[in-house]
Write a structure and sequence with these properties.
Mean pLDDT of chain B: 93
Helix content of chain B: 25-40%
Order of helices and strands of chain A: HHHHHEEHHEEHEEHEEEHEHH
Shape of chain B: elongated
Number of strands of chain A: 10
Number of domains of chain A: 2
Oligomer: heterodimer
CATH class of the largest domain in chain A: Alpha Beta
CATH topology of the largest domain in chain A: BirA Bifunctional Protein, domain 2
Radius of gyration of chain A: 42 Å
């Protein structure tokens, strides 16, 4: 390399080192490699060189150009990296700042329990039936073998409304058992129906609410026995509470619309509230084989069709499952309670995800 | 129903312990409510003799006693009671025993230098009343060293069961004993009272003028009696089950009410007018009953009357005027059979609950009447002296020839139980169902007179409109098998339901079909989308107070409860928005004013008849959440609209087909609310900010905005196969337009016009700006829209874009009078 090229290269490298930003860098590049740059000028002068020198000079110029170009690009990369660092540093935010509050909606525990019931009974072939909150005394009582004078009517603390429908007095249904009647009148058996819904009784204290929820169940077929009643309810209770060995006890009882009738208890610990162990029994639902009069009232011949029915308090099983002590907050809409016991809308009850 | 262990033993010969009895009762359907075992707390206390009682050497008010608690070893006890004296019999608590009245466990100690190794007890210290004037002073002959509780008759556990409405027979101790014997824990003792020979003709005769209410009645007088206090055993039994002993005659009627389930009534003969008691309908007469209240008895009530008027409301409660008192010397005992339905209705009409009504309305044992009257007469003679009259009777004991047949196969077919025929027959026999006939497949039994619930007359109330042939077949089927179901129940009850093997329901389909209908699934999705919008689900009451309900809709009388439980829960709500507003108000009062709530539930309408609509409602109150990067702002109409439209979208409503009108109900701000319509008629929902006067009435400080979505009004989307999407290969072009338009023109009209200007080309129209004021002048607004042109065949040329833009401007101008800004 000739001296002039060495000087140019050295001077360029010095200028590059002094270039503090990309604009200064560009000025250096133009001064050397631009149209009127110093190296460009030397290249132009190559043609005037003697032929025998031209070859060596040309090679030297190319080497110098490559070296200078590489130096410029190296400097450019360094400056760009520095500029990016500066920008990133300037853009820095406190990552501990809270994110914007997202939607925080929740599903009420009663709805959640109803969903779980629909999922579990659905797997056993049940569909979900519906009744009316404002019902006639025929659907709520008479059709269910509770005639006007029956002592059970007095036990129900019924709310009455002034009007009539089909000539029968109107009331707020005291039980979801009306859906048994609706189902048998509107569908041909075999039937497997559950009916969760609102029910009403004139009773208000720590353990009673004037409005509450029940879930009715009805199975009608030709050869359904009390053994199926027991199997179905044991299957449900163990799935619902998630305790495969949950003790379940059946006791004789009486309901006007079933015969034989039975109360169903589950095993728990009265002191701790723990389910499934502890040696105590807790009444959880009523059930029985559908009474022949109820079948006959709905036009089903009890010699042909038989089955079972059950009803359980939705708040009651919800309280047990989640360890909720007091009934009243279910209906108060207190945000603090709802946030504590509500469930995510993005985790609906699905058997394959586990209820 | 309460009874004591010893009372049960009067009818049941058993050595079963209390726990076994309790478990058996529950198993056979006589559910145990509780056992009160007073003896348990008194177990350590023994009868002792005070050998000596001298003044404490170092304390004026204390006495130093030596006590013999029965084991012959004198014990030193310091006692503060003024009545402690040498030679008395008292109750001694040894060290280590728990004193119920003070809650202290005794320890041996020294009181001012004198050892005290136990305690002499007052009644209060034993938890047996308030008497604390001194220690219990027992009679001289009280057995030294014996358990005080046993000696005092307090070791008799009180058992309480709940009796279901079908089991009138279990409202007597004898009926309970019979069930327990059938369940295998003892033997039912015989009951066959010896007849009492009559000493004189009955001074009172019966006349039945209401045979449908009283088919059969017996009565008998006893004269020359003394109606004093009952003996201790009777008083203790009544007290134990919560009855107050009154006098011997009244106590005897109460005793048989609970012993045999046989209510009796006693008239003081001296207070009756004339020799005849007539059973007849009431004639709007007033009677003061034994509870001291006056009742007006009408034609639907059966009364017992003498010449002076009504003396008793049959089967429910007697009258005060002819009641027995300490002065009574001649009594007339009534033992009647009353129609259960009439008694139930009378009792309900007059709101009288009595032990008699409770038994009559469930049906009593008619065949027991003569024996029960003999037993009662004998007890009166025994306790009160005197002599008995002949029996006066009217009517006739109903013929009872009810048989029931059980096919043994039904035990498995209905009951799912494998029970041997002999076992079934034996269970029935033990319950009093005597065998009439039996073959290999079945048994026919006579139903005992006390089981009015078995093989009862069939009363159907069939659905109106059933196919007649079907209704008849169903009724015949019921008549054919109901009694058999009764017997299956009895056999299973005694065998125990736990013995029946559970069987899972047969699988109908390997993969079960959906359990929800399409409409139910859609409701579930609305619930999830509203929660995903940030609303918290509530379940509020379907009723509320009428005044506040009126802010949210109609409050017709047809939806006002006849018997509300509270004045503020008297009206069925127009919709859940109303009760959500109350919930938001309550949250505000608790300091949580920023609420976002929703509920899916019924709203009620009166016309054309009382019915209900399924409604999803949401309400936001206060402000949006405060955050460092997004300031809080008051909630408003468009928050509610966004929630409502999110729900409509998830329901599959064609959103472009919806229109919004500004005629929302009056609970909303008239200028900040809307009605969502589909087509000319269907109203799918309403939304808006709550009216300031509603907020004020509910005590809500901040703004609130809500909606109601009428789920039943939203049609199910049509099921059709969707066409494949058009995925154009050509670039879309977006153009902005700003229109100046009258402020009264709905933005929706402008957007719709723009959308429709060139349907094949315009893929979307977005309103990105709304501006009022400034140079526009009053009554004008500027609306900025972005229109997306999406070509499918070729890239748009500048000329084509211009042409399409011109169409947009023209269409908007034509529809709304808007001009390009």
């Amino acid at each position: 390399m000739t001296d002039d090229l060495a000087v140019l290269q050295a001077e360029t490298e010095t200028a590059l080192a002094d270039a503090a930003d990309l604009r200064a860098l560009e000025a250096v590049r133009v001064a050397v490699l631009g149209k009127s740059g110093r190296l460009t000028a030397l290249l132009k002068a190559l043609g005037a060189a003697a032929p025998e020198e031209r070859r060596a000079r040309g090679a030297a110029l190319n080497l110098a150009k490559d070296a200078i170009t590489a130096a410029i690009e190296a400097r450019r990369a360094a400056l760009e990296a520095a500029a990016l660092d500066a920008r990133l540093s300037a853009e820095r935010l406190d990552p501990s700042l809270p994110p914007a509050p997202g939607p925080a909606g929740l599903i009420h525990p009663i709805s959640r329990t109803i969903e779980e019931m629909a999922a579990i009974f659905g797997a056993m072939g049940f569909t979900v039936g519906e009744g009316l909150d404002v019902e006639t005394d025929w659907f709520n009582f008479s059709a269910l073998n509770i005639p006007a004078h029956h002592p059970a009517r007095a036990d129900h603390d019924t709310f009455y409304l002034p009007g009539t429908r089909d000539g029968r007095p109107l009331l707020l249904r005291t039980q979801t058992s009306d859906v048994q009647i609706i189902s048998m009148l509107n569908q041909e058996p075999p039937l497997r129906v559950i009916a969760p819904g609102r029910t009403y009784r004139a009773d208000h204290d720590a353990t009673h609410s004037p409005m509450f929820h029940q879930c009715e169940g009805l199975v009608i077929d030709r050869a359904i026995t009390l053994g199926h009643l027991k199997g179905c309810l044991i299957d449900f209770l163990r799935a619902f509470f998630g305790i495969a060995s949950l003790p379940v006890r059946f006791r004789s009882s009486y309901f006007p619309f079933t015969e034989p009738s039975m109360e169903v208890d589950i095993g728990w610990n009265r002191r701790t509230g723990e389910l499934g162990a502890g040696g105590d029994w807790l009444e959880i639902l009523g059930s029985g084989m559908v009474h022949p009069r109820v079948l006959a009232n709905c036009g089903l011949d009890p010699r042909v069709w038989q089955g079972f029915a059950f009803g359980m308090g939705i708040e009651r099983v919800t309280m047990l499952k989640h360890g909720i002590a007091d009934l009243r907050p279910f209906f108060e809409g207190d945000l603090r309670w709802l946030r504590h016991y509500g469930s995510s809308p993005l985790a609906p009850a699905m058997l394959h995800e586990g209820v | 129903m309460k009874f004591t262990r010893s009372w049960l033993a009067a009818h049941l010969d058993t050595d079963a312990d209390l726990t076994t009895i309790a478990e058996t009762l529950t198993r056979i359907g006589l559910e145990l409510e509780g056992i009160e075992d007073r003896a348990a707390a008194l177990a350590p206390f023994r009868i002792a003799r005070v050998i000596s009682a001298v003044p404490h050497p170092d304390a004026d008010r204390l006495r130093a006693c030596m006590v013999d608690a029965g084991d012959g070893v004198p014990v030193s006890v310091v006692c503060g009671a003024p009545n402690a004296r040498t030679g008395m019999m008292a109750v001694f608590a040894p060290p280590g025993s728990f004193i119920p009245g003070t809650g202290i466990t005794l320890k041996t100690g020294r009181i001012r230098g004198v050892e005290s190794a136990g305690m002499l007890l007052s009644a209060r210290e034993m938890g047996l009343g308030e008497d604390h004037s001194g220690i219990v002073d027992l009679p001289e002959d009280a057995p030294l060293g014996a358990s005080y509780a046993a000696w005092a008759g307090l070791d008799d556990a009180v058992i309480e069961i709940s009796v279901t409405p079908n089991r009138g027979d279990a409202l007597g101790v004898r009926g309970i004993a019979r069930d327990l014997a059938a369940a295998g824990i003892g033997r039912l003792k015989p009951f066959a009272p010896a007849p009492v020979a009559p000493a004189y003709p009955s001074p009172i005769t019966w006349k039945i003028a209401a045979p449908e209410a009283c088919p059969f009645v017996l009565g008998r007088a006893v004269r020359g009696l003394k109606n004093g206090e009952s003996p201790r055993w009777l008083r203790e039994r009544l007290t134990a089950i919560g009855l107050r002993p009154i006098n011997a005659l009244v106590d005897i009627t109460n005793y048989f009410t609970f012993d045999l389930g046989r209510p009796l009534h006693v008239f003081d003969v001296a207070k009756l007018s004339g020799p005849t008691l007539t059973l007849r309908p009431g004639a709007n007469e007033t009677m003061r009953a034994l509870n001291g209240r006056d009742y007006v008895l009408g034609a639907e009530d059966c009364v017992i009357a003498d010449a002076a008027g009504v003396q008793s409301l049959a089967g429910v409660m007697g009258g005060e005027a002819s009641g027995c008192t300490a002065d009574t010397t001649e009594v007339f005992v009534e033992c009647a059979l009353f129609d259960p339905v009439r008694v139930a209705l009378s009792g309900r009409r007059h709101q009288i609950t009595s032990d008699a009504r409770q038994r009559f309305e469930r049906g009593i044992d008619a065949a027991l009447m003569p024996d029960a009257l003999e037993a009662a007469t004998a007890m009166i003679l025994e306790l009160c002296g005197g002599e008995a009259s002949a029996v006066a009777a009217a009517g006739a004991m109903p013929a009872r020839a009810r048989d029931a047949r059980l096919r043994f196969s039904r035990l498995a077919e209905l009951g799912g139980a494998a029970i041997a025929p002999d076992t079934a027959v034996a269970s029935l026999a033990a319950l009093g169902f005597s065998q009439v006939a039996r073959d290999a497949d079945s048994v026919t039994v006579a139903v005992p007179s006390w089981r009015n619930d078995v093989a009862a007359p069939i009363a159907l109330d069939q659905a109106p409109g059933l196919d007649p042939a079907r209704a008849v077949a169903a009724a015949e089927g019921c008549a054919a098998i109901e009694a058999e179901c009764d017997l299956v129940e009895e056999v299973l009850r005694i065998a125990g339901l736990d013995a029946i093997p559970p069987v899972s329901l047969p699988v109908l389909a390997p993969v079960p079909p959906a359990s929800l209908t399409e409409a139910q699934s859609r409701t579930a999705r609305v619930r999830r989308v509203l929660a995903a919008q940030g609303l918290v689900e509530c379940v509020t009451f379907s009723f509320m107070d009428r005044t506040r309900a009126a802010y949210f809709g109609e409050t017709p009388a047809a939806l006002t409860l006849l018997n509300p439980i509270a004045a503020d829960l008297d009206q069925l709500r127009p919709g859940p928005l109303a009760t959500l507003a109350l919930a938001a108000s309550r949250n505000g009062a608790r300091g949580y004013a920023d609420a976002a709530l929703f509920e899916i539930g019924p709203g009620f309408v009166a016309a054309p008849e009382a019915s209900q609509r399924a409604i999803a409602a949401g309400l936001r109150s206060g402000a949006t959440p405060r955050a460092w990067n997004a300031p809080a702002r008051p909630v408003g109409m468009f928050d509610a609209k966004a929630d409502l439209f999110a729900a409509l979208a998830v329901l599959g409503v064609p959103m472009e087909a919806l229109s919004v009108t500004a005629d929302a109900p009056s609970c909303f701000h008239p200028g900040r609310s809307g009605v969502v319509r589909q087509g000319p008629k269907a109203v799918l929902g309403v939304f808006g900010e709550l009216h300031p006067s509603v907020l004020a009435a509910l005590g809500m400080a901040g703004p609130a905005a809500g909606f109601e979505l009428f789920l039943d009004a939203v049609a199910l989307p049509k099921k059709r196969r969707r066409a494949a999407p058009v995925l154009s290969a050509f670039q879309p072009v977006r153009r902005d337009f700003a229109f100046v338009v009258d402020a009264t023109v709905p933005a929706e009209a402008l957007l719709r016009a723009a959308r429709g200007a060139e349907r094949t080309l315009i893929a979307g129209v977005v309103l990105f700006d709304r501006f009022a004021g400034g140079a526009l002048g009053a009554g004008k607004v500027s609306l900025g829209i972005e229109v997306t042109f999406q070509p499918v065949a070729a890239t748009l040329t500048e000329a084509e874009i211009e042409a399409a833009s011109a169409k947009v401007v023209a269409a908007v101008a034509k529809a709304t009078g808007a001009v390009l800004r």
